[in-house]
Amino acid sequence: QDAAFSFTYPHLLAAWRAAGAEILPFSPLADEPPPDADCCWLPGGYPELHAGRLAAAQDFLAGLRRFAGNRPIHGECGGYMVLGQSLTDADGQVHRMAGLLGLETSYATRRMHLGYRRARLRSPLPGHDRGQDLLGHEFHYSTILSQPDTSLAEVVDAEGKAVPETGSRRGNVTGTFFHLIAEAP
Questions:
Q1: Average pLDDT for 17-38
Q2: What is the percent of the chain with per-residue pLDDT over 90, rounded to a whole number?
Q3: What is the dihedral of CA 97, 101, 107, 109, to 10 degrees?
Q4: Given 37, 99, 162, 173, which is the most exposed site by the fewest CB atoms within 10 A?
Q5: Which residue from 47, 53, 62, 60 is spatially nearest to 175, judged by alpha carbons?
């Protein structure tokens, strides 16, 4: 929870707390590793504006890698980009990220991605069944240069048309540009 990772829907945090979760914020920009917890959620935000600082945050990146060895990590939008191999900033400079997913993204090659999404999980996540539908939205300008990992979900827009931003899964690590709003009714 810092200037690079600041977007999570408040109702999700409230629901997690109501279910008994203790949320332990940390700051990747301050080079803090994830705290000792059952799982790590990297929310959306603006890592593309802080790519150099994040690439230099060695305690944070090493902590993510250790965490992923035996516990789940999920990155949402900006968090997804940081879990990948690289993030190209607006000036075209490539920054190495955590490398937990093969994802390569670019903020230099901008295109607006905006809209409501429905995602059907391809494989189960903790607390979710395979095939479960989730509702959310996408809003970002970064584009995917490479997405070699297993697809996390089948994702469609509000009109039911498939979108290429399907998310990724590798071991204990998942991510997507999709911002979770709720489980589908």
A1: 97
A2: 82
A3: 130
A4: 162
A5: 47
Q: Catalytic site residues? A: 77
Q: Which residues of 85-117 are buried (b: 16+ CB within 10 A; e: fewer)?
A: bbbbbeeeebbebbebbbbbbbbbeeeebeeeb
Task: Name the average pLDDT for the chain.
Answer: 92
DSSP string, 98-130: --SS--EEESSS---EEEEEEEEESS--TT--T
Q: Distance between CA 69 and CA 32 in Å, rounded? A: 18
Cα–Cα distance between 161 and 149 in angstroms, integer?
22
Q: In the structure, what pLDDT confidence band is assigned to residue 112 with cuts at 50, 70 and 90?
A: confident
